[in-house]
Design a protein that fits this description.
Keywords: Lyase. By secondary structure, this protein is α+β, with helices and mostly antiparallel strands. The strands form two sheets. Strands 1, 2, 3, 5, 6, 7, 8, 11 and 12 form a nine-stranded mixed β-sheet that branches. Strands 4-14-13-9-10 form a five-stranded mixed β-sheet, with no helix packed on it. It binds hexanedioic acid and magnesium ion (MG).
Length: 266
């Protein structure tokens, strides 16, 4: 990241508590860079890591990792050249077909994603897409519900990293498929709302290949002296753009030759 920190520990704790409270109580806050325009990406990840620490201390379990801003179109829109990462916990996990009350969220959007489970530890720096691909065991259709805690969905890269990349809930399809049987780059993905096709895409929309996204995650974790343990669930990033949803909507994702994932907003 090559950026220095501008925040002391107390400020990291204060901002993490603010964003954690906003997430748990579905309350909007002003984007944090309005008051602190010099915040760096390193500060932002420090805040995100502190939110994870708070949530683990409250009894949640780390259930996986997610990649964000993985489509070239979204990166261009945000004026960034690299994707970002966040964490998943068991509290955010919904079973396939679950009902999700709108009152638990602020202004949710959904993304169709390809998720994977790794078979062995991956360690960067220098992890390649080929190495990452060799570590992908199972593949699943999945839905990410993103719900930026920032008022009016106004954010910049630094504020969104601190806000755990807008992660809110996720659904992993009940049935997956072994990666060895699939061509992840060419996997077709269909996102539907109430039976109507909202968007279609392919695995290649995710940084050129979902394994490239996994490798990018491993290399970003290496910058924090962390590896990615065997058996980690990774949501590799949106294949399609994100769509607003409301009570009464049923969201359905199909990944060709893999399976489906469904969610009902109530
Ligand atoms: O998972 C994602 O790509 C979310 C990125 C954060 C930006 C947003 O909330 O749209
Ligand atoms: Mg996403």
């Amino acid at each position: 990241m090559n950026q220095s920190t501008t925040l002391d520990e107390t400020s990291v704790g204060r901002l993490a508590a603010l964003l954690h409270d906003a997430e748990t109580n579905a309350r909007e806050v002003t984007k944090i860079t309005d008051a602190l325009p010099d915040l760096t990406q390193e500060d932002a990840y420090a805040i995100q890591h502190e939110i994870l620490r708070i949530r683990l201390a409250n009894g949640e379990r780390l259930s996986g990792r997610k990649m964000g801003l993985t489509s070239f179109a979204k990166m261009k829109q945000m004026g960034v050249e690299r994707p970002i990462y966040g964490f998943l916990t068991d509290r955010s996990c919904l079973v396939d077909g679950a009902e999700l009350p709108m009152r638990d969220l602020i202004h949710p959007k959904v993304e169709a994603e390809i998720s994977v489970i790794t078979s062995h530890e991956l360690r960067g720096p220098g992890c390649t897409a080929t190495e990452a691909l060799a570590a992908i065991d199972m593949v699943y259709a999945s839905i990410e519900v993103i719900d930026s805690r920032y008022r009016d969905f106004r954010f910049d890269l630094v504020s969104v990293i601190a806000d755990n990349t807008s992660a809110a809930r996720y659904v992993i399809g009940a049935k997956g498929a072994p990666a060895a049987l699939l061509d992840l780059r060419n996997l077709g993905v269909v996102l539907e709302r109430n039976g109507e096709v909202l968007a279609t895409g392919a695995g290649a929309a995710v940084l050129g290949h979902p394994a490239a996204s996994l490798a990018a995650l491993v290399n970003m974790l290496a910058a924090e002296n962390q590896s990615l343990p065997a058996g980690t669930l990774v949501m590799t990033g949106g294949v399609t753009e994100a769509f607003r949803v409301d009570a009464g909507d049923t969201v359905h994702v199909t990944v060709q030759g893999v399976g489906t994932a469904e969610l009902k907003l109530v």
